[in-house]
From TrEMBL:
<dbReference type="InterPro" id="IPR015424">
    <property type="entry name" value="PyrdxlP-dep_Trfase"/>
</dbReference>
<dbReference type="GO" id="GO:0030170">
    <property type="term" value="F:pyridoxal phosphate binding"/>
</dbReference>
<dbReference type="InterPro" id="IPR036388">
    <property type="entry name" value="WH-like_DNA-bd_sf"/>
</dbReference>
<dbReference type="InterPro" id="IPR000524">
    <property type="entry name" value="Tscrpt_reg_HTH_GntR"/>
</dbReference>
<dbReference type="InterPro" id="IPR051446">
    <property type="entry name" value="HTH_trans_reg/aminotransferase"/>
</dbReference>
<protein>
    <submittedName>
        <fullName>Putative HTH-type transcriptional regulator YjiR</fullName>
    </submittedName>
</protein>
<dbReference type="GO" id="GO:0003700">
    <property type="term" value="F:DNA-binding transcription factor activity"/>
</dbReference>
<comment type="similarity">
    <text>In the C-terminal section; belongs to the class-I pyridoxal-phosphate-dependent aminotransferase family.</text>
</comment>
<keyword id="KW-0663">Pyridoxal phosphate</keyword>
<dbReference type="InterPro" id="IPR015421">
    <property type="entry name" value="PyrdxlP-dep_Trfase_major"/>
</dbReference>
<feature type="domain" description="HTH gntR-type">
    <location>
        <begin position="7"/>
        <end position="75"/>
    </location>
</feature>
<dbReference type="InterPro" id="IPR036390">
    <property type="entry name" value="WH_DNA-bd_sf"/>
</dbReference>
<keyword id="KW-0238">DNA-binding</keyword>
<keyword id="KW-0805">Transcription regulation</keyword>
<dbReference type="Pfam" id="PF00392">
    <property type="entry name" value="GntR"/>
</dbReference>
<dbReference type="GO" id="GO:0003677">
    <property type="term" value="F:DNA binding"/>
</dbReference>
<keyword id="KW-0804">Transcription</keyword>
């Protein structure tokens, strides 16, 4: 039997299938040979073919239909953050900061010139490094020998940290529901995502314990303003999770404190002084603007050294002009006051909308961040469709979901730019769409 598939290892077989798909020799929906058939054809162990198909599934190349076989996946859109293109609807699914609250860099730009930076010089600007060391040391006062580096944003840091720690098909613990960028990094890297449920206090203890038992080699965690739920780690939960992690000191902890200077919640960390492999990432995109493309990572010496090896001057370094600009803004008292005011604005506008939903019988826990996570007790897609008919473009929770744990009955809404009248109208429309969706669910169940 000629399949066109070649290889003797899982990676070779998976690469062969990828090549066939890229050449158009296997179209979406095409059935791949059964595991036993392909193993016999290639003269390999069946487990080798199983591993190859698993790699392809993790990368989104194939989908398994059980007894219906494994088929080439349809080319579907990968969910991304940001504004939706070409819509006439009011977009409340963006996840964006308010552009009016991002500091104007014009004056600071005039002050950040100076001598050119050449190949072979330090990757991180010395003035920014000194400021960032105080910032990170305040967050992790008991950490030993903090090393700093710089990347092109938090997602860039997470991608590099995982790639220097994991091999294809290695397991990584992700919050469920999960930040879209982290979810896509894991999928495209060919790693195996192990979901850890999130409640109002952060990752659950039972969920993290189960993930560690499943053999995860890294844990990606958001200590504050978890995206999409807005949850922040409580002091009690942080203590409980550190106790669980104490038995796994070489599992890499990656903390993405993306909301940092804007957050109204205290910072609690999973990183204990005795933990061996860890990294704390703080980007500037939420308060200085997404276009800044800059994040500072504090890490243990081993992790920092391996991360730095992937930052080669001249190819993947972060512009020193950009670093100087960030530093100039971060040490400016007027800018810091503006950042503080922005954080208070996001918190108050989100709280106002949550109160409006409560008036309409929809209870949403207090949250931090740019978004509000609205549980609907009804399928989210019909609710989102109901909002579309009322002029709103919302983001359903299943885009953030890993394990089918309930995110499909939630919406993530970005409401901080809405004035009081628009918030009132949206709250009315959410309530009406939820009632309609629940009624439709009841008819189906009946």
């Amino acid at each position: 039997m000629t399949t066109g598939i070649t290889g003797t290892t899982a990676t070779e077989i998976a690469d062969s299938v990828r090549t066939l798909v890229e050449r158009g020799d296997r179209v979406p929906g095409a059935l791949l040979p059964p595991v036993r058939t392909l193993a016999d054809t290639l003269g390999v162990n069946r487990n080798t073919v199983v591993a190859a198909y698993r790699q392809l599934a993790l990368a989104g190349v194939v989908v398994s239909r059980g007894r219906a076989g494994t088929r080439i996946a349809a080319r579907t859109r990968i969910a991304q953050e940001g504004y939706a293109a070409d819509t006439v609807l009011r977009d409340i699914g963006t996840g964006n900061p308010d552009p009016r609250l991002i500091p104007d860099p014009t004056e600071a730009l005039r002050r950040v010139g100076g001598r050119p930076v050449l190949y072979g010089e330090p990757v991180i600007d010395r003035a920014l490094e000194a400021w960032a060391r105080d910032w990170m040391t305040e967050a992790l006062p008991e950490a030993r020998d903090i090393r700093l580096t710089i990347t092109g944003g938090a997602s860039d840091a997470i991608d590099r940290l995982l790639s220097q720690t994991l091999a294809r098909d290695d397991a990584v613990a992700l919050e469920d529901p999960c930040f879209l960028s982290s979810l896509n990094i894991v999928r495209l890297g060919g790693y195996r995502a192990v979901p850890v449920p999130v409640d109002e206090e952060g990752m659950t203890v039972a969920g993290l314990r189960a993930a560690l038992a499943a053999g995860v080699r890294a844990v990606v965690h958001t200590p504050r303003a978890q995206n999409p739920t807005g949850a922040s780690l409580s002091a009690a939960r942080a203590t409980q999770l550190r106790e669980v992690l104490a038995e796994h000191p070489y599992v890499l902890i990656i903390e993405d404190d993306h909301f940092s200077l804007l957050s109204t919640r205290p910072f609690h960390s999973l990183i204990s002084p005795a933990h061996e492999r860890w990294a704390l990432i703080r980007s500037v995109s939420k308060f200085l603007g997404p276009d800044m493309g800059l994040a500072i990572t504090a890490a243990d010496p081993h992790t920092a050294e391996r991360l730095a090896l992937r930052l080669s001057p001249g190819t993947t370094w972060v512009s020193h002009l950009l670093q100087r600009l960030a530093h100039a803004l971060l040490i400016d008292p007027a800018v810091r006051a503006q950042i503080d005011a922005a954080g208070a604005h996001y918190a108050s506008r989100n709280a106002a909308f949550i109160a409006r939903l409560a008036d309409r019988g929809i209870v949403v826990p207090p949250s931090d961040g740019l978004n509000v996570w609205v549980t609907t007790d009804a399928a989210a897609r019909p609710v989102a469709e109901g909002l579309m008919r009322r002029g709103w473009l919302a983001r359903p929770g299943d885009e953030f979901e890993l394990a089918g744990g309930g995110a499909a009955s939630a919406l993530r809404l970005t409401v901080h730019e809405l004035d009081d009248a628009d918030q009132e109208r949206l709250a009315d429309d959410v309530a009406a769409a939820v009632v309609a969706a629940r009624a439709a669910d009841a008819r189906i169940d009946g």
